[in-house]
Amino acid sequence: MNRELHLSVALGSAGPRPAAHWTGLVQLAELGALDFVTLDDSLDPADADGRLDAVAVLAHAAARTSRIGLIPTVTTTHTEPFHTSTALATLDFVSQGRAGWLVDVSTTEEAARAVGRRDPAPDAELWSEAADAAEVAARLWDSWEDDAEIRDAETGRFIDRDKLHYIDFEGPRFSVRGPSIVPRPPQGRPPIAVALDAQGRYLRWELAARHAEIVLLDADSPEAAREARTELLRRADRDDLRVLIRVTESPHGLAELLADWHAEAGTDGFHLALTDPTEELPAVIHDVVPALRARGLFRATHTGHTLRDHLALARPANPYAVRTGAAR
Fold first, then answer.
1. To bridge 191 with a disulfide, which of 15, 182, 213, 243 should be the other Cys (CB 3.0-4.6 Å)?
2. What is the pairing mode between strands 157-159 and 149-152?
3. Total H helices, total E strands in the chain
4. Residue 101: which of 219, 213, 255 has the closest Cα?
5. How many angstroms separate the Cα of 245 from the Cα of each of 30, 37, 228?
6. 143-173, pLDDT tens digit by residue?
7. What is the Cα 261 distance to its own chain's centre?
8. 245: burial class by Cβ within 10 Å (0-12, 13-18, 19+)?
9. Which residues share a beta bridge with 255?
10. What is the largest CA-CA distance in the chain?
11. Are 7 and 270 within 8 A, CB to CB?
12. Measured between alpha carbons, how far is 216 from 53 in angstroms, rounded to an integer?
């Protein structure tokens, strides 16, 4: 029996077209039952070109879709993890559990000057900071227990304060006490994604092993992809990691290529980085997806509602709730 694959698409950067344009692409991707879309973002003025904020654009799309996962790129450089965590938790609420987070860093002097918060830093330092930011975000998402909200109009009690928790994170770059100002997201934690090269840099791989549930992998052969996945799973020492190979091929002949790589690489699926999503995504949805279905490799429709459902990722337990429950 064929093993079904996961399929997602990169929409590029949100600009300079209006949000409705990007929402139309997300709706088309949802029509094909893709697992998720990613939307890039950057703090570099040279990359701006009228770009819209990726989180805001996908929030616009969330209100006009119902199934597909929505993963914006959010850089951890020049931003505070408290604000990042609340923005992504809000997107998860708006989308009813379909948000994720593609972690990135900002390395340029131009971005540093534009934001004015700090000087440029070495790549290794930035990815180490990104790992801390991911840790802070996860703790903040957990800082509200799932049943912390009471919403009792008669007594005027909105929350049970005993079910809100200080995270007390102390690190070389951040000191965050918490709790969050946003309740725990519908998914518990929006899944974290990291883009890697099969020959990737050490700190980025460590971030993926510690915090990611989705890896978007660049590999030049099925063998390289298989070896990279094996190493990632070894480092992570857990099975809740989905490895999708990033592909830059045109839609023509793509179904056969994906089927061959899927069989040889043993990875979980593919993330399509289209040259021109506006022109090429219709061919993916109307030609490639049906061809994969005919091979028994892709779903006919979404069977769940959340991004975690699509990727068969369990909703994480809240460690603070486990501790307080044991204490009680």
1. 213
2. antiparallel
3. 12, 12
4. 213
5. 20, 14, 10
6. 999 999 988 777 878 899 999 999 999 999 8
7. 23
8. buried
9. none
10. 63
11. yes
12. 22
- What per-residue string of b and e applies to 49-70 under the rule 16 or more CB within 10 Å gives b? eebbbbbebbbbbbeebebbbb
Spatial distance between the Cα atoms of 75 and 81, rounded to a whole number of angstroms: 10
CA distances from 172 to 109, 140, 141, 177, 240 (A): 22, 18, 21, 14, 29
Task: Taking the CA atoms of 67, 30, 73 and 210 in sequence, report the sign of the dihedral they define.
Answer: positive
- Between residues 109 and 188, the one the model is more confident about: 188
For residue range 244-290, what is the model confidence (pLDDT) as tens digits?
999 978 899 999 999 999 999 998 999 999 999 999 999 999 999 99
- What residue type is assigned to position 165 of the chain? H
**Alpha-helix residue ranges (DSSP H) falling in the chain:** 19-31, 54-62, 81-94, 109-115, 123-142, 202-211, 222-236, 254-265, 277-283, 289-294, 307-311, 319-327
Q: Would you state the structure tokens that stand for residue 193, as one six-digit string?
A: 């994604």
Q: Which amino acid is at 133?
A: A
